[in-house]
């Protein structure tokens, strides 16, 4: 007997598959994370993230303009201070002349309103101990003292031209504290992209090199446990109630179930961050000839989009934007 139902009919040609595709990924959905380092005159390679660099201010401008010309929707900027500028409270993070705020001003000047400029609102790059907050006398991260520093940092970033502030430290109440401070300062247009469900992950390793992290130990006392699911819903609900404009799940690829559940309940747009380790695994396998780099990257991003992401932060952003628009070199 032959089958009466033949779903394969709609898979027969690329045109048919395009016609009935249930998930659409466009360049505008992609955000490029970028690193700007103090004291360098030319881009500096990140060995664990082939193809990604720490930028000088000049190369940051040109690379960001190139990304936006490719159709990428925005950029997320991380600052890499000189080692000697780190201290216990991450004071360089809120310094208007600190590397991150100078980078934000450079991006705003270069891009105008043609792109969304996002800033990482976290202290880990700037502290000499590498944690995302201020430590108490016992060496634990002091949640409420850290909120004060986040407020200072957020105000400096908004003044420097950031459209969206990325609250990535996973401190309780961080979104509410920053939203209140922004509104009180008249920065009512500055938005918050809240890292609502950020998990303590082994896949962050290459990022530590990218930002020159000073961390010893881990961040498991404030980032979420990978075994927990319902906790992500609580964190998301709290961030939305406190005023988040966008909520984010991080990492993305190993947490697609979390992303789907957040997307199903969130009243605001949902972002997902394909993090450094997820990027580096694909690139390393491709460099060994085991997989097709571009095909694997595109598939991974389509799957993140299918799981519910409205916005995807990825180091593949420029290459995939060109692939999607048919302008790959």
Automatic annotation (TrEMBL):
<dbReference type="InterPro" id="IPR001731">
    <property type="entry name" value="ALAD"/>
</dbReference>
<protein>
    <recommendedName>
        <fullName>Delta-aminolevulinic acid dehydratase</fullName>
        <ecNumber>4.2.1.24</ecNumber>
    </recommendedName>
</protein>
<keyword id="KW-0456">Lyase</keyword>
<comment type="function">
    <text>Catalyzes an early step in the biosynthesis of tetrapyrroles. Binds two molecules of 5-aminolevulinate per subunit, each at a distinct site, and catalyzes their condensation to form porphobilinogen.</text>
</comment>
<comment type="pathway">
    <text>Porphyrin-containing compound metabolism; protoporphyrin-IX biosynthesis; coproporphyrinogen-III from 5-aminolevulinate: step 1/4.</text>
</comment>
<keyword id="KW-0627">Porphyrin biosynthesis</keyword>
<comment type="similarity">
    <text>Belongs to the ALAD family.</text>
</comment>
<keyword id="KW-0350">Heme biosynthesis</keyword>
<comment type="subunit">
    <text>Homooctamer.</text>
</comment>
<dbReference type="Pfam" id="PF00490">
    <property type="entry name" value="ALAD"/>
</dbReference>
<dbReference type="InterPro" id="IPR013785">
    <property type="entry name" value="Aldolase_TIM"/>
</dbReference>
<dbReference type="GO" id="GO:0004655">
    <property type="term" value="F:porphobilinogen synthase activity"/>
</dbReference>
<dbReference type="InterPro" id="IPR030656">
    <property type="entry name" value="ALAD_AS"/>
</dbReference>
């Amino acid at each position: 007997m032959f089958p009466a139902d033949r779903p394969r009919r709609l898979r027969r040609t690329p045109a048919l598959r395009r016609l009935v595709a249930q998930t659409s990924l466009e360049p505008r959905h992609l955000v490029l994370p970028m690193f700007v380092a103090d004291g360098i005159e030319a881009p500096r390679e990140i060995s664990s993230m082939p193809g990604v660099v720490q930028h000088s201010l000049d190369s940051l401008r040109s690379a960001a303009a190139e990304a936006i010309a490719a159709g990428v929707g925005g950029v997320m900027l991380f600052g890499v201070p000189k080692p000697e500028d780190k201290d216990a409270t991450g004071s360089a993070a809120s310094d208007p002349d600190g590397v991150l705020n100078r980078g934000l001003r450079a991006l705003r000047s270069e891009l105008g309103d043609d792109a969304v400029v996002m800033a990482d609102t976290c202290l880990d790059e700037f502290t000499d101990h590498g944690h995302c907050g201020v430590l108490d006398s016992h060496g634990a991260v002091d949640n409420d003292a850290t909120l004060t520093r986040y407020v200072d940092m957020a105000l400096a970033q908004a003044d420097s031209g950031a459209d969206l502030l990325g609250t990535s430290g996973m401190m309780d109440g961080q979104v509410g504290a920053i939203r209140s401070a922004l509104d009180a300062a008249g920065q009512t247009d500055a938005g918050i992209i809240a890292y609502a469900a950020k998990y303590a992950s082994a896949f962050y390793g290459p990022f530590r090199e990218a930002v020159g992290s000073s961390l010893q130990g881990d961040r498991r006392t404030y980032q979420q446990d990978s075994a927990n699911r319902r906790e992500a819903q609580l964190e998301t609900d709290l961030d939305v109630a406190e005023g988040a404009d966008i909520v984010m799940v991080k990492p993305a690829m190993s947490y697609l179930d979390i992303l789907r559940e957040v997307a199903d309940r969130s009243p605001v747009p949902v972002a997902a961050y394909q993090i450094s380790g997820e990027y580096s695994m694909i690139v390393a396998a491709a460099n060994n000839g085991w997989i097709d780099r571009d095909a694997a990257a595109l598939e991974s991003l389509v799957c993140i989009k299918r799981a519910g992401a409205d916005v995807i932060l990825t180091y593949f952003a420029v290459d995939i934007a060109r692939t999607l628009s048919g302008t790959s070199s």
